[in-house]
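Q: Protein A?
A:
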Amino acid sequence: MLASIVATCKLNDVNPAAYIAETLEAIIDGHPHSRIGDLMPWRFRKASSQSQQGPG
């Protein structure tokens, strides 16, 4: 399972270590089950780059 996550991250040009760390933090912080799609690797870069840009 872990190899699949890492491979999916690489296919989506996402740092696997950063993805796993931030996803686990989100789950621990209570990310809602109904929004699990937000945690997928192909959405990670978009969410991470928006949070790094700050308020627009």
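Q: Protein B?
A:
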Amino acid sequence: MKGFNTQLSYFLKSIFILFFAILALSTNSAFAKDWYQGGTLHEANALTWQKATQQNKLATCADFIAGLYSKDLLAPEISEKMKSVEDFKPYASELVKQLDAAFAPESDPAQNKKMFTNQTVKSTAMMLMIMMKWVQN
């Protein structure tokens, strides 16, 4: 019986160690999404933007800028700076700030809903990028 208890104890310790190893690996930051992944706000309205996470906003803005870049529509002075995906981040961050300002919630929820229900993220982002002269003429 003593041998059985020793084997059972060893087995339980092994399971315990394996469980925590898997837990540690699954929470490792190496498995986290990159800053430009996971944007879902492309077709959203301003109300959805107001409630979205900063990560979602940043990834969505990165997609907008990457889309313009891939179609060769970014202004040349911006496009020539794009050597890696990290070069998009300052522009995506600035676009997030601009959209946050454009979609700043009204204090009255009814007025906020009335004002922002029909404003789309995509069209407002494009308008802002044109105003900031990020898009070629």
